[in-house]
């Protein structure tokens, strides 16, 4: 059975504009096009679209998805099994975050008392939802190098990295009311700089300053960082800028 693009859009919830875009970039080109130029999607096309949507839900970028689907070794059944495991893990993480949120509400009402550790259960900093943005800002090589470093660590290593990052953020957040240029703050900011570079990045002073500015220029970063304390993102931007100045002197 062949379906017109409008029918596919209504069936899947994917907009006609998005389907046209997938066709233009060669990600999903329908098997049949009428003489009048109308796209007609087959069952196999719908299977491919389903794969694309699963990958998108898991945070893959369109270019990455295209490379995966075009790989001659691509196995749909294997991919579905892996996607299932990844989505189950994502659901588990969201369940933990929801529980943390519910506990935080009780804590705010004075009904329970949470430890600092419990306040951050469920957050996972090993997965970066802004990877494409990072690629545009700093290039594919730096991001790929970082991703490879994470992959080489394995699950246990990634968990340790996430815990180290949380510990550094908690330590710095506790200093956010101090002078950002003080020796104590700058020593800790130096630890943050070294931590980032250990992840496969190579942050020059200027790139480090730029990352700090991103914390306050992009409300998504600001919102996530300020979960560690009001004004934390702005404090980090200032402290990172000071470190960059001193490294360039």
Structure, explained:
By secondary structure, the chain is mainly alpha-helical. The chain folds into three domains: 3-70, Multidrug-efflux Transporter Regulator, Chain: A, Domain 2 (Orthogonal Bundle); 79-115; 123-248, Globin-like, CATH 1.10.490. The protein has eleven helices and three strands, in the order βααββααααααααα. It has a three-stranded antiparallel β-sheet. The protein is elongated, with a radius of gyration of 22 Å. The relative contact order is 0.06. Mean pLDDT is 82; it is low at 133-139. It comes from Bhargavaea ginsengi.
Strand content: under 5%
Radius of gyration: 22 Å
- The helix/strand series, from N terminus to C terminus, equals EHHEEHHHHHHHHH
Tell me how many strands there are.
3
Category from helices, strands and their pairing: mainly alpha
